[in-house]
Amino acid sequence: MHELAITQSILDIAENAAREHGVKKVREVRIKIGDYSGVVPQCIQYYFDLISKGTVAEGAKLKMEKLPILMRCEECGWQGEVDKHHIECPACGGIRLRLLQGREFYVESLEVD
Question: What is the CATH number of the domain that holds 85?
Answer without folding.
Answer: 3.30.2320.80
